[in-house]
Design goal:
heterodimer; A: mainly beta; six-stranded mixed sheet; 0% helix; B: mainly beta; seven-stranded mixed sheet; four-stranded antiparallel sheet; 11 strands; globular
């Protein structure tokens, strides 16, 4: 079983739609979680950290569900510029074990 | 404002040739990483370093060697390239390993083709 699993998509949504991605992790010792964004043929860049209480940054909301071992990313009022691949990252308590998901592809359609 | 810089950006090798990928960071980060990214596989860690003079194996280290002689540089070597090493290689660095310290900053990538 993979340490981190994401639905690869693709998710094709119209502008203005709300879309949510989940990322499940297998190790309950996981302590830190992040969402990265990767544009086509570019490097991954940090989108946001995921805090236990959930956190919001503009149109983006990240949540953690420890009981079910998943993190989620919600994008409201989707823009064309949101089209990208979204990667989740899970870091174990030891710090020297961290895992990237394979990414979820989002295309926002005019 | 350079961040993490990788050279070269593109390279084509013949099977059996060797090459070195250079990663340089100007953020005074202790930790540096080399990943490869293949379609459907996501980012896979090749080797990483927790400080100058140290290296450690990641998930897919075979066929690669690394060196961290200076804090700001992390080199990835392919001694005898194979077609299976055709991939996009990313270097990254972070302040630390645990929690928010492990926010990683990536270079722009090196696209390598081995014929």
């Amino acid at each position: 079983r993979k340490e981190v699993e994401q639905d690869p998509g693709p998710f094709n949504v119209p502008e203005g739609a709300t879309v949510a991605f989940n990322c499940t992790y297998s190790n309950s010792a996981s302590q830190s979680f992040f969402w990265y964004r990767q544009d086509c043929r570019k490097e991954p860049k940090l989108l946001m950290s995921v805090y236990s209480s959930g956190n919001e940054d503009g149109r983006f909301t990240a949540q953690l569900n420890r009981a079910s071992q998943y993190i989620s990313l919600l994008i409201r009022d989707s823009k064309l510029s949101d089209s990208a691949t979204y990667l989740c990252v899970v870091i174990m308590n030891t710090g020297n074990q961290f895992y990237f998901g394979t990414g979820t592809s989002l295309t926002v359609i005019p | 404002n350079a961040g993490v810089t990788q050279t070269p950006k593109f390279r084509v090798l013949k099977t059996g040739q060797s090459m070195t990928l250079l990663c340089a960071q100007d953020m005074n980060h202790e930790y540096m990483y080399w990943y490869r990214q293949d379609p459907g596989m996501g980012l896979r860690l090749i080797h990483y370093s927790v400080g100058e003079g140290t290296t450690a194996k990641g998930e897919v280290p075979d066929g690669y060697n690394v060196s961290r002689l200076k804090k700001q540089n992390f080199l990835l070597g392919l001694e005898s390239a194979a077609p299976s090493q055709t991939s996009v290689y990313f270097c990254a660095s972070s302040y630390g390993l645990a929690g928010a310290e492990n926010i990683q900053y990536f270079g722009a990538g090196t696209r390598l083709s081995v014929l």
